[in-house]
Amino acid sequence: MDQLNYLLFAWINASPASSKWLLDVATFLARDAIALVPLLLVGLWLWGPQSQLISQREVVAKTTIALLFAMLAAAAIGRLLPHERPFVAGIGYLFLAHAPDSSFPSNHGTAIFTCALAFLFWYQIWLGGLLMIVAMGIAWSRVYLGVHWPLDMVGGFLLGLVGCLLAQWVWNLFGGFIAAQLTRLYRFLFIFAIRKGWVKA
Question: What sign does the CA torsion over 88, 102, 28, 134 have?
């Protein structure tokens, strides 16, 4: 597996001869595109047709649970089984400043793949497909810029899948209770905005 990791990294990683525009695109994907996840979840919770709000908020809740599972697992793996990033190992070229912490699995990859899979499973396939394209772009960019190995992204995808499975299991057992508590808390915290009509009740 290490040999495959090295070969794929060498094939993907940028070099000093790489074009500036491609490096700029990769930097945007690697650093900024992940903001789509919170923006999308907040938007789906706060706005939408009244007839779809319940189902949208269920998707947001389940996705958040999946993210919690996946990100906690990623943090635990990084602590228990630390793996050097390419630039720490002195391999390839680095084009994005990053702390020399454990590379496996990728936190960015875990978050975006979890969200993409959640939308594929529980919401609209076309939107989940678009998010999966974004996820692939983020995964490529972080390898291209030298901060991750390719298999770090595979690990993120697998954790996203496991996170979604666990979230569905939790929702099957406690979904009604979780939805009621989240709605009660939301209406308490956002009572002013709801009364003003800025967000949906």
Answer: positive
How far is residue 162 from each of residues 4, 10, 38, 165, measured CA to CA in Å?
Answer: 24, 29, 20, 5
- In whole angstroms, give the CA distance from residue 160 to residue 154: 10
Cβ pair 146, 87 in contact under 8 A: yes
**The predicted structure's pLDDT at residue 34:** 95
pLDDT of residue 35: 94
Residue 76 counted as domain residue: yes
pTM (predicted TM-score): 0.93
Instruction: Assess if residue 129 is contained within a domain.
Output: yes
DSSP state of 95: -
pLDDT on residue 77: 96
> What is the reported pLDDT for 190?
95
How far is it, in rounded angstroms, from Cα 93 to Cα 144?
9
Residue 15 located in a structural domain: no
The domain of 184 spans 2-8+32-95+125-196
Taking the CA atoms of residue 105, residue 98, residue 83 and residue 149 in that order, the dihedral angle to the nearest 10 degrees is 60
Domain count, the chain: 1
98-112: average pLDDT: 94
